[in-house]
Design goal:
The protein is an alpha/beta fold. It has eleven helices and 13 strands. The protein has a single domain, classed as Aldolase class I (TIM Barrel, Alpha-Beta Barrel), CATH 3.20.20.
Length: 352
């Protein structure tokens, strides 16, 4: 990490986390970001669900909820970027404070509640996206919607022509009863609607499903079966957790979803289980606690074809993206893999 970035992170950690988050987005808009573009190599280049990625290190949804900082993110080194979640109508989300920095645990707890500007405002920004970046949108539902399942299809229909992929997010713990949509019957109906909206797009795009880490093996198996039957493009595992095991921060008692280092093992076990259940039928994206090249490599060996991070940037800065990509390239070379795809799932059994 460069001295200037280290100083900036130290300053940001002294102020309210949500204000700090807003300043980070402003810095991206002002061009105060890395400018080298994504790290790439023959080993790092990969394809997932038809998307050609320069490297497999992506930005998870939630950092740029409203697609306000696309120019800066396109230069920040990511192989792909996911923004949102977007809902049909704007909504303020939950009352503040709703974001908590757990420094002792290298973690965060949030209970944002899908705060966003709504699909119309977000779509207008997506239409001005930088060329060359692989860009996805996380789809959400309004808290007061009479038909939450229909909201996902509505956002996809409205924004789908401006993005490269979409993610159906039924796993946020901060919208009451949203996770109930992970049940087989409800999920099947929801995905049918989303895939119908996809089919009506001028150019159909990959659609992923993002699931929670707080699922039993039987539930994971059920979800995997529904995803395969629905002909989804892949699964993202996982969202934040409601678990508070092993935390040391005084903020551990706060309600919301926990992300960061304490999530790594739980999310990786779910990922490995998904890999076993889908048996190559669907590509997987590993999320949860990725903060180093070694952790990214572990996710890949557990079954992921790509990874995403977010919370680690709070503690490591945007320079971490290049560090992980370079480190991952070196790890693949060390173990004799000519391409990333050769390493996918090679260490899965250790996590089952």
């Amino acid at each position: 990490m460069k001295v200037l970035e280290r100083a900036g992170l130290a300053a940001l950690r002294k102020i309210d986390p949500e204000t700090s988050h807003g300043l980070a987005l402003k810095a991206l808009q002002w061009g105060l970001t890395p400018r080298g573009g994504p790290v790439t190599s023959p080993r790092l280049k990969t394809e997932i669900a038809g998307l050609s990625l320069p490297n497999p290190v992506g930005l998870a949804a939630g950092f740029d909820k409203n697609a306000e900082s696309l120019e800066g993110l396109a230069r920040a080194g990511f192989g792909f970027v996911e923004v949102g979640a977007a809902t049909p109508r704007p909504q303020p989300g939950n009352p503040r404070p709703r974001l908590f920095r757990l420094t002792e645990d290298a973690a965060a707890i949030n209970r944002f509640g899908f705060n966003n500007d709504g699909m119309e405002a977000i779509n207008a920004r997506l239409a001005k996206r930088p060329k060359g970046m692989v860009l996805g949108l996380n789809l959400g539902a309004n808290k007061d919607s009479e038909d939450r399942a229909a909201d996902f299809a509505k956002v996809l229909a409205h924004c789908g022509s401006q993005i490269d992929f979409a993610t159906v997010n039924v796993s946020s713990p901060n919208t009451e009863k949203l996770r109930d949509l992970q049940g087989a019957e409800a999920l099947r109906a929801l995905l049918d609607g989303a895939m119908a909206a996809r089919a009506d797009l001028p150019k159909p795009i990959p659609v992923f499903l993002k699931i929670a880490p707080d699922l039993a093996d039987a539930e994971i198996s059920e979800i995997a079966g529904v995803a395969v039957d629905a002909q989804l493009s892949g699964i993202i595992g996982t969202n934040t957790t409601l678990s508070r095991d092993g935390l040391h921060s005084r903020h551990a008692i706060e309600k919301g979803g926990l992300s960061g280092q304490p999530l790594f093992e739980r999310a990786t076990r779910v990922l490995a289980r998904l890999s076993k259940e889908t048996d190559g039928a669907l590509p997987l994206i590993g999320v949860g606690g990725v903060g180093s090249a070694e952790q990214a490599y572990t996710k890949i060996q557990a079954g992921a074809s790509a990874v995403q991070l977010y919370t680690a940037l709070v503690f490591g800065g945007l320079g971490l993206v290049d560090e992980i990509a370079h480190g991952l390239d070196a790890l693949l070379e060390r173990d004799g893999f000519a391409t990333l795809s050769e390493a996918v799932g090679q260490g899965r059994e250790a996590w089952l």
